[in-house]
Amino acid sequence: MLYEVLHPIVTPLATAIWRPDVVGTEHVPATGPVILASNHLSFVDSLVIPLTSPRQVAFLAKAEYFTGTGVKGWISREWFTGVGSIPVNRDDARAAQESLDLALAHLRAGGAFGIYPEGTRSRDGRLYRGRTGVAWLALEAGCPIVPVALTGTDKIQPVGSRIPRRAKVRVEFGTPIQVAGRFDGVPQGRARRQITDEVMASILAMSGQEWAGEYNQRAPQGSA
């Protein structure tokens, strides 16, 4: 598939250009279902994580990444399709749930799945409260969650910038959060909230971001 062709080429090239500092890859299970839950600072996050992860990881990705035009649009579409990303129509709540169902199927097939609990990228660099879809997936699949902290990716493609820049990037894969058997008898809503808060606390400790303490909101239509 396209991923198997591009990954051996793109990874050494990207590593030579940005020289990312990658820590904790041993925390990512070599096989079996696992969720990689990351903070979200830039469009390039969904390129950086697959390039630095020790195994192939698929993401939910906004539908716009599959419909762009020109060279950038083609590269975006080919990459996200190649790594098995699942398009999300963020304006349709039912479509979002259907996408989570597809993500669950990917996990149940033994895959690694990446998700941004904040829902959308942080435009001010703060870490926002996590939405509980990540916990729903983990509970349904009975799989661990590996928190991931990205730093510096916002400098590669700052908000409003269209041309990538060189910047120091760090990717830290944290200690897995186990959910199987921990929440038997706990109300589902409470379990999802507790798991999500654990994930965000781990990301916060690794990333050193300021805690926003509220949910992130999508940028207005038409903004970068």
UniProtKB/TrEMBL annotation:
Signal peptide positions (record): none
Entry keyword set: Acyltransferase, Transferase
GO annotation, biological process: phosphatidic acid biosynthetic process
Molecular function, one GO term: 1-acylglycerol-3-phosphate O-acyltransferase activity
Cellular component GO terms, alphabetical: plasma membrane
Keyword match Lyase: no
Tagged with keyword Cell inner membrane: no
Phospholipid/glycerol acyltransferase domain location: 34-153
Pfam families, per the entry: Acyltransferase
SMART domains: PlsC
Domain of life: Bacteria
PANTHER family recorded: 1-ACYL-SN-GLYCEROL-3-PHOSPHATE ACYLTRANSFERASE
Name listed for the protein in its UniProt record: 1-acyl-sn-glycerol-3-phosphate acyltransferase
Gene: plsC
